[in-house]
Amino acid sequence: MALHRLFQLSSLLGSAVRVTLRRNIGLSAVLFNKAKDLDPVQKLFLDKIREYNSKSKAVAGGVVDAGPAYQKNLSEEMTKLQRLYGGGDLTKFPQFSFPGEPEEDLLLEALV
Questions:
Q1: Among 1, 50, 69, 79, which is least packed, fewest CB within 10 Å?
Q2: Calpha distance 43→109 (Å, rounded)
Q3: Which cellular components does GO assign to this protein (predicted)?
Q4: CA atoms lying within 13 Å on the CB side of residue 68
């Protein structure tokens, strides 16, 4: 029984070690790749990602590379939505008000 548990523990430990080594080897491959010169396609790809990252930080949550046509279309659509849904802040959940007595009062009166 103890020998069986020892084999189970060793197999679990071995699988954990294999996963850790696989992750570390994958990470070290990325680090070694940074040390070497990248091929031109990889370098161009990384440059574009860095450029997009800097542009997205510059617009602070807006749309990157949005031209005047996009801005015009966006403002028209927002105007349509505000007209359709009664204006106000479209990012907030609407507040509903129902005339009459609340349900809780009606339930309490029924119990009395």
A1: 1
A2: 74
A3: mitochondrial inner membrane; proton-transporting ATP synthase complex
A4: 0
Residue 97 pLDDT class (50, 70, 90 cuts): confident
Q: Which of 47, 40, 71, 28 is nearest to 79 (CA)?
A: 71
pLDDT: is 82 or 25 the higher one? 82
Give residue for tokens 């990889």.
Answer: 42
Distances (CA, A) of 73 to 42, 79, 90: 35, 10, 17
CA pair distance 41, 45, nearest whole angstrom: 6
> What is the 3-class SS of 13-81, one letter each residue?
HHHHHHHHHHHHHHHHHHHHHHHCCCCHHHHHHHHHHHHHHHHHHHHCCCCCCCCHHHHHHHHHHHHHH
